[in-house]
Structure formats: C-alpha cells, structure tokens
C-alpha cells in the first residue's frame, strides 16, 4: 500500500475542512431542502445548493492554499482568524433559527441518525484521547459544554443577556487560549466533514429517487355522450370575505356571474384547516385526523375513525373510482405532490410547487440566505430587506401563469371527464394589485388583492371552456380547502394595513358553488355540511345519479353528517370565533 505523503495528507485535510465549513455555512439551506416535512425540492434547487456549496468550499480551499504557499506567518495568522470569523456564520444561523435545542435538532434534521451517533462517538473518543494526553483537557471540555448549555434552554426574553455574557466569557477565553481554540475548532470542522458526503448523497437521492408515477392509460370514451366535471379548489378562498363582507373596493364579477346560475351553499365547512389534511380528505372521502410526511412521495394519513396510519398512495381516491366508471381524470395542482403520490390513478397530471425557479435564481436566493446568517448583515448592507419577499412573490406569479396554461390545455381535452384544478390563490402572499389590475410583487399587495385574481381565473376557465364548446354541458364545482387563516399569517410575518381591517373574526366557512351541466338558475342551500362529501358527490354526478340542482340539494341533505370538522384547529361550538386582543388572553 502506497503511503500518503505528509504534504498530500495536509492538502486532503484542508480540502475536507473547506467542504465541511462550506456545508456548515449552508446548514439552514440544507435544513429546508432536505426536510421531509416540506415539499420535494425542484431539480434546479438541488443543483443550486450543490454548486453553491462547492463554490464556497473552493474559495475556502484556495484561501488556505495561498496562505500556506506564501510561507508567511502573517498570512497564516490572517487565515486562522478568517476561519474563526467564518465559523461564526453557521453558529449564528443555528442559534438564531429557533434559539433552542429544538432549533438545533431541526437544523440537523436531514442528517441520518446513525451518522450523528457515529460522529458523536468519534467526538467522545477524540476527547478522551486528548484528555489522556492533557489532564486539564477534560475539564476544559466540560466547561465548554456548560458554557453552551444556556443556549439550549434559555428563554427568548433572556436572549440578549445570555448572548452578552457568553460573548464576554468567550472573548476572554479565546484571548487566553486562542491558538488552542483555533486548533480545536479546526479539528471539530474536520470531524464533521463526513456530513458533507451524507448530505450530498441524500441530495443525489432526491434527484433520482422521487419521481412522478406513470400516468394511468387513457380509456376510450365518447366525448359526445360522456359526462364532464371540473372541480376547482382555490387555496384559502374565504367565504366571508369573498361574499358576506366583501370590501367595497373589490368587484368579483365572474364569481357573481357563476353564483347567478349555480347552487350556492352558505354553510360549507372544510375537512381541516390546511391543505395537507383537507385535500387528501376530500380526495379519499374520509375525514383525516393526522398526517405525517414520510418522504417527498408519501404521506401517512390517520383517518378520524381509525388509530392506524396508512399510506395515502395506497388508499382509494375519487380519480380511481371515476376510472371504474369509465372516466379519465386530470389534475393541475400545486403544494400536494399529486403526480408522485396518486399519479397512477390520473391520466394527465401537472404539478407545480411553490419554490420553482431557474438555477441562477436558486443560487442567488440561497447565497442571500447564507449572507443573512452573518451577524449584523443588514446593518452592514449584506442582506437587503424585502428582496426575498419580492423574489418569492415573483416565483408565485410564474407558477400561476404556468398553471393557467396547463389548465387551458387540459380543459380543451374532450377525453378528460374529471378535472381537478387546485389553484395557488388567494393563498398569501399577495401577488396581484386590484388598483392596477395586474401582477404586483413589490408593493403592498394583499390577500384581498388576490381575491380579484381568483375572479380572473374563473373568467379564464370559463372562456377556455366556451372556446371548446364545453361550458354549458359541463358541471363546474368551485370550492376551497380552508378559510383565510389570518391569525396564522399575523404570526408568520404580519398583515398589511388593509388585511388588518378585515382580520376581525375567524369564519371557518368556505365557498361551495355547484353549476350542474345545463343549469342556468340560481339556487341557495343553507344547511351546514362538510365538504368531505365531495368525493361521493362527484361520483354521483358522473354516474348520473345527480343531474340537476334539485338533485344536488337533495343528495347533500341525505348524505351530510357534520358541519365543522373536529380536526380544524380553533373550532368552537359557534359558526364564528372572535379575535381576542393579546391583552384579553
């Protein structure tokens, strides 16, 4: 076996440290990317973080290589201190992401548990070996652990005090033992280098493993006699704001036109308060009590009448049931990965996530994320406030337009009898300006502005179907997966001034507007019901059991069981829940 020369070994160590340090600097980017509870990242996002990580590692490696080749003591000293300053970036990012043990575990959540245990065992072994050589080292390790412990348990209100104390103590300790501290930090970074390989390997798996299922073969149908149904879900479309307490400055002419020729319900409630539970419940036709994301291609669901979680991909769904009736189905949706989970039940599937962007834009956004973790980055002008907000809104505009084109294409296909359109609006953030009647990503666009975009989408759908000659002979159902959760958005990032005017109460009702084929008269249905029954209602319509608005009203009367779902957070006994001020809690 050829023995590695000391110079080559040094180069390998420097390279491993550079890769490890770069991965640590990107740790919050990796956390979001490889978190199984989030949507599967697009290929451009995966490639972007791999390239960014390697580029930053190349910069680190070039810096230390130049310093060593200069044979200058001053250059090596500068390189060591630069290493310490860079190391502050991942530490600051981890501490300030959650400022708790939960935050640190979340930041490292993508790393395999066995890898963490192995690295931990190696670290303990290394500490023990060093302690045998230096009787004071064990005490120093204990002191270091004790010094960082407050970061894991301290209350947020005491954050500045603890940071100040640790800063002073750390500065004094570093001044006294700076050479040893730098060597120890370098050893730890080197020890963590295997995590780079694990992270890169998991990203490679994401690029190759989680793919869309092959679509279901198309059935032969007679377009002239087949029944057609278009099911439209507008994400977070609120019944109260859209129809009951609509702002005077908001005109929804297309929705009002549809209401004038359809069955409109006034007390429809969703199965849950967020998409990951509500939409699978409607697609399976059963209330869901809990969900757990296993990986980007599977969701474990626990039904309300069961205690055992089951894979969503293996459950019956409305598209598979429609197929047994001889109906081809299509989905154009976002957020829920329909094509990966139930794509084999669907003849035509289009899925758009909310993080889609070009490789270059992905790299820029991730680089800004790293810059934001630099202490005082905003004061130093390294992170611009609002840049990513505009970028995120711009991405949503792109996704909306891509979905619009996919919807138009799908609606003009006569072989498709059941079409689900799950739209990303009016879900925040605001991407439209009703004052300018155009997309807006830089101003104070709000949820209320997005309601006008919903109206435009209804008009676009109608015109596409009229152009294909299918509007009058197609059943159209417009609904939502949940209400406007302004209490959530208030906590997440605040509300605009206009939104605050209308965020006065929580109303769990959602629209449910059903225009049967050939229907032209308005009908109102007042009793409360839960939209989980839409699964069976769609099959009743496609099967010919429900042909008119009268049939639909009678069918809902017969099959409705509950109104408010017991699995919606904050559900009370009444229809509305007042918003309490913080002082009243």
Summarize the entry for a quick read.
This protein has 22 helices and 17 strands. It has 585 residues and is α/β, with parallel strands linked by helices. It has 2 domains: 6-208, no CATH class; 228-244 and 251-280 and 316-356 and 389-562, Alkaline Phosphatase, subunit A, CATH 3.40.720.
Mean pLDDT over the full residue set: 82
Outline the biggest β-sheet.
Answer: 8 strands, mixed
Structural class: alpha/beta
Q: Going across the major beta sheet, what is the strand order?
A: 8-7-9-1-12-14-2-15
Terminal CA distance reads 72 Å
CATH superfamily of the largest domain, by name, is: Alkaline Phosphatase, subunit A
Number of helices: 22
CATH fold description of the largest domain: Alkaline Phosphatase, subunit A
Top-tier CATH class of the largest domain: Alpha Beta
- Quaternary state reads single chain
Number of DSSP strand runs: 17
Residues in helix, %:
40-55%
Assign the CATH architecture of the largest domain.
Answer: 3-Layer(aba) Sandwich
What amount of the residues lies in strands? 5-15%
Radius of gyration: 28 Å
How would you describe the shape? elongated
Low-confidence stretches: 98-133, 570-585
- In the residues, how many domains can be counted? 2
Summarize the structure in words.
This protein is an alpha/beta fold. It folds into 2 domains: 203 residues, no CATH class; 262 residues, Alkaline Phosphatase, subunit A. Helix content is 51%, strand content 12%. It is built from 22 helices and 17 strands. The strands form 5 sheets. It has an 8-stranded mixed beta sheet, with helices on both faces. Strands 4-5-6 form a 3-stranded antiparallel beta sheet, covered by helices on one side. A hairpin with a 4-residue loop joins strand 10 and strand 11. Helix 1 packs across helix 3 and helix 7 runs antiparallel to helix 8. The radius of gyration is 28 Å and the shape is elongated. The N and C termini lie far apart (72 Å).
């Amino acid at each position: 076996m050829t023995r590695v020369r000391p110079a080559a070994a040094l180069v390998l160590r420097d390279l491993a440290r550079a890769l490890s340090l770069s991965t640590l600097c990107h740790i919050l980017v990796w956390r979001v990317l490889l978190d199984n509870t989030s949507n599967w990242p697009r290929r451009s996002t995966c490639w972007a973080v791999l390239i960014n990580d390697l580029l930053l590692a190349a910069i680190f490696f070039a810096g230390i290589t130049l310093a060593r080749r200069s044979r200058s003591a001053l250059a090596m000293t500068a390189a060591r201190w630069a290493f310490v300053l860079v190391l502050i970036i991942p530490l600051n990012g981890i501490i300030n992401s959650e400022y708790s043990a939960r935050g640190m575990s979340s930041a490292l959540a993508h790393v395999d548990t066995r890898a963490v245990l192995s690295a931990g065992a190696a670290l303990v072994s290394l500490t023990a070996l060093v302690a045998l050589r230096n009787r004071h080292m064990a005490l120093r390790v204990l002191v270091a652990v004790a010094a960082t412990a407050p970061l894991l348990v301290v209350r947020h209100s005491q954050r500045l005090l603890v940071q100040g104390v640790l800063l002073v103590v750390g500065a004094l300790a570093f001044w006294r033992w700076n050479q040893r501290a730098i060597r120890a930090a370098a050893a730890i970074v080197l020890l963590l280098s295997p995590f780079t390989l694990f992270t890169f390997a998991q990203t490679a798996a994401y690029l190759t493993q989680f793919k869309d299922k092959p679509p279901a073969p198309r059935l032969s149908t007679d377009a002239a006699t087949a029944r057609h149904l278009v099911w439209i879900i507008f994400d977070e479309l609120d019944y109260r704001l859209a129809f009951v307490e609509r702002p005077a400055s908001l005109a929804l002419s297309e929705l009002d036109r549809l209401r004038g020729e359809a069955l409109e319900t006034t007390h429809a409630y969703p199965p849950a308060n967020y998409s990951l539970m509500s939409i699978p419940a409607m697609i399976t036709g059963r209330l869901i009590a809990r969900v757990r994301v296993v990986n980007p291609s599977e969701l474990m669901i626990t039904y309300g009448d069961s205690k055992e979680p089951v894979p969503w991909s293996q459950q019956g769904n409305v598209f598979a049931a429609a197929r047994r009736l001889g109906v081809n189905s299509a989905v154009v949706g976002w957020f829920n990965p329909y094509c990966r989970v139930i794509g084999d039940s669907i003849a035509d599937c289009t899925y758009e996530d909310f993080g889609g962007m070009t490789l270059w834009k992905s790299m820029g956004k991730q680089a800004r994320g790293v810059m934001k973790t630099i202490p005082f980055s905003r004061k130093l002008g390294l992170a611009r406030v609002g840049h990513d907000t505009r970028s995120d809104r711009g991405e949503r505009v792109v996704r909306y337009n891509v979905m619009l084109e996919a919807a138009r294409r799908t609606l003009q296909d006569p072989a498709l009898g059941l079409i689900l359109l799950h739209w990303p609006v009016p879900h925040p953030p605001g991407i439209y300006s009703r004052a300018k009647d155009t997309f807006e990503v830089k101003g104070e666009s709000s949820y209320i502005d997005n309601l006008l975009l919903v109206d435009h989408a209804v008009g676009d759908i109608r015109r596409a179907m009229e152009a294909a000659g299918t509007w009058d002979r197609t059943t159209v159902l417009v609904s939502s997966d949940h209400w406007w959760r302004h209490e959530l958005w208030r906590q997440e990032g605040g509300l605009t001034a206009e939104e605050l005017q209308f965020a006065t109460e929580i109303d769990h009702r959602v629209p449910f507007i059903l225009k049967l084929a050939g229907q032209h008269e308005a009908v109102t249905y007042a009793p409360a019901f839960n939209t989980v029954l839409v699964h069976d209602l769609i099959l009743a319509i496609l099967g010919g059991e429900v042909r008119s608005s009268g049939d639909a009203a009678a069918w809902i009367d017969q099959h409705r069981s509950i109104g408010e779902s017991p699995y919606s957070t904050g559900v009370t006994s009444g229809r509305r829940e007042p918003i309490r001020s913080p002082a009243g809690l």
